């Protein structure tokens, strides 16, 4: 086992790739991230993402204490309720702190956070100015006889290192070359997402529990829509709001990432339907056309929801084909490996995609640091990471798919579909009356998301 310095090439500057780079740089491992975007502010990154216990522990492990504190300070208002409502804003199920006689004995790291993807991106880019190389479009890699690996880019440049990490998302070119047997499956659903600014008018459109939580709307024909209200600790001028702590205000005011962050208080909404209920050209509809399609499909929904969609920013609307990875048998380990959506793309059904990518990053970082320090061999370190990641990653894939499958009975026409949807609503209303069931569900979900873990992976 050698203690010679490692150099890690990361393809893709998304959540997982940047978290990995933060951890490696902090530990003294050489790392370079090659990102296809032109600047750190490119890309439609403004929608909310939930960061659970797994995600928070990974961020704390990889970021400096100061930067982790900045992450916490820039999180949006924490959701209080997790809800299910009908398209007519009739409550089916709602779970909040009132279900516990005494609050669970959770660590601060176990508590769920909400953050804008753009904000998280800017936090993760902070301090990596010498590490991230923009406008680098990866084409292929070559493994060299000397044990190193070289990545090539479409501008004619290349980069050589000891390890190549694919963090280039669901359409990973690295995966296509390295694991051609790892395929994506069509989940049979298409989503259209958008955001509506949170104003005095839009605030009145939603019940308090929806404003203060994360909500799934269950509509006819299997239509569904998630609503997540994002309220940040800074105002429209980028200044800290009144009422936040002095320490948080100071961190925000001094944080250079705010200069690149366009996040303002908004209501994120994501509509989804089975493909057979959508026009054939849905994926070609962008902006106002995508927004108009949502309005057409929800013509019989509650007027407040119709108004919410109508007031959405057309430029924020786009369609998204929902896909999921097909689990693969663990492969023979080399100095090429994968994290996040590059290996385990999952539907948003459980909301753990970003958190699983962060978990990957922290585990791989820890193992690569051990390899550089001579505590394990490089391939042993990667193999240990892949063994654990394949297990928890594809478990999350399977559970996420069960929550969002356009081929399920709930999306069928006729008596079968109506019966299944009716039974789902009835069961949710019944569970809504049983506090002990809510409590058991909340604890099970928290455990799935990493709450109460006593040690890192």
TrEMBL record:
The lineage of its organism: Bacteria, Bacillati, Actinomycetota, Actinomycetes, Kitasatosporales. GO terms for molecular function: FAD binding; monooxygenase activity. Keywords: FAD, Flavoprotein, Monooxygenase, Oxidoreductase. It comes from Streptomyces morookaense. Residues 313-380 form the FAD-binding domain. InterPro entries: FAD-bd, FAD/NAD-bd_sf. This is FAD-dependent monooxygenase. It comes from the Bacteria.
């Amino acid at each position: 086992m050698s203690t010679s310095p490692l150099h890690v090439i990361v393809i893709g500057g998304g959540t997982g790739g940047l978290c990995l780079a933060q951890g490696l740089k902090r530990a003294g491992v050489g790392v370079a991230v090659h990102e296809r975007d032109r600047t750190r502010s490119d890309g439609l990154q403004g929608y909310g993402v939930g960061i659970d216990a797994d995600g928070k522990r990974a961020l704390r492990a990889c970021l400096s204490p100061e930067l982790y504190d900045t992450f916490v300070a820039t999180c949006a208002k924490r959701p209080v309720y997790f809800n299910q409502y009908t398209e007519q804003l009739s409550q089916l199920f709602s779970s909040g702190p009132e279900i516990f006689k005494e609050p669970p004995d959770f660590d601060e790291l176990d508590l769920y956070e909400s953050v804008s993807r753009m904000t998280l991106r800017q936090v993760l880019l902070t301090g990596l100015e010498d590490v991230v190389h923009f406008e680098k479009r990866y084409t292929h890699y070559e493994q060299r006889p000397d044990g190193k690996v070289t990545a090539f880019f479409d501008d004619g440049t290349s980069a050589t290192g000891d390890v190549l990490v694919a963090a280039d998302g669901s359409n990973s070119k690295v995966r296509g070359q390295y694991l051609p047997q790892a395929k994506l499956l069509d989940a049979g659903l298409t989503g259209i997402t958008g955001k509506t600014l949170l104003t005095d008018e839009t605030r009145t459109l939603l019940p308090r529990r929806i404003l203060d939580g994360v909500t799934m709307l269950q509509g006819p024909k299997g239509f569904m829509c998630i609503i997540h209200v994002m309220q940040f600790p800074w105002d429209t001028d980028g200044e800290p709001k009144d009422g936040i702590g002095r320490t948080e205000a100071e961190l925000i005011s001094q944080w250079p990432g705010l200069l690149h962050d366009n996040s303002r208080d908004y209501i994120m909404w994501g509509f989804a339907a089975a493909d057979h209920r959508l026009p054939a050209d849905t994926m070609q509809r962008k902006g106002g056309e995508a927004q108009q399609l949502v309005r057409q499909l929800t013509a019989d929904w509650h007027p407040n929801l119709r108004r919410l969609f109508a007031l959405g920013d057309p430029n924020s609307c786009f369609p998204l084909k929902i896909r999921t990875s097909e689990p693969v048998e663990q492969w023979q380990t080399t100095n090429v490996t994968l994290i996040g959506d590059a290996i385990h793309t999952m539907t948003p059904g459980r909301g753990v995609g970003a958190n699983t990518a962060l978990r990957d990053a922290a585990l791989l970082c820890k193992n690569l640091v051990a390899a550089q320090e001579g505590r394990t061999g490089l391939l042993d370190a990667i193999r240990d990471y892949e063994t654990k990641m394949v297990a928890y990653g594809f478990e999350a894939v399977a559970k996420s798919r069960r929550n969002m499958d356009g081929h399920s009975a709930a999306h069928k026409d006729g008596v079968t579909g109506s019966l299944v949807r009716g039974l789902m609503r009835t069961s949710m209303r019944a569970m809504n009356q049983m506090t002990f069931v809510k409590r058991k569900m909340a604890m099970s979900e928290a455990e799935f998301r990493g709450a109460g873990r006593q040690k890192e992976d």
